Amino acid sequence: MAELPHLSRALLLETPIRTPDGAGGFDEVWQELGTLWADVTAAGGRQRTGAATAVSDVGYRIIVRAAPHGNPQRPRPEQRFREGTRVFNILAVAEDDASGRYLTCYANEELVP
């Protein structure tokens, strides 16, 4: 039997809301969907050059309890988790176990050193 995840970190799930800016583009704000308890594990990283400076891009594997499809508490790609000032952008979501009790979210965090 696989070890159960240790859901010890409270992460705020947020989704982007896009509204017309009146000039043909869009403004994006983040709407809070609720707090999920998570097991967060670093999964590697790299450094790349950003527009003005080097950026550290760290990958994470974030496990949360599953919610049914269509439930706003079920994370999706393009959403993000927030923990204080830290932001984890969700890239992909997959079921973590055969029973569907947990989801694994593959996310990244960009840090400017």
Kindly summarize this structure in a few lines.
The protein has strands at about 10-20, 25-50, 55-65, 80-85, 85-95, 100-110.
List keywords for this structure.
113 residues, mainly beta, 6-stranded antiparallel β-barrel
Range of strand content: over 45%
What is the SS-derived class?
Answer: mainly beta
Shape: globular
Helical fraction equals: under 10%
Main beta sheet:
6 strands, antiparallel, barrel
- Tell me the number of helical segments per DSSP (H or I, 4 or more residues long): 0
Output the helix-strand order: EEEEEE
- Spatial order of the strands forming the largest sheet: 1-2-3-6-5-4
Number of E-type strands: 6
Radius of gyration (CA) equals 16 Å
Distance between the termini: 41 Å
Report mean pLDDT, rounded to a whole number.
88
SSE topology sketch:
Elements: E1 9-20, E2 26-49, E3 54-65, E4 80-83, E5 86-95, E6 102-111
Antiparallel strand pairs: 1-2, 1-4, 2-3, 3-6, 4-5, 5-6
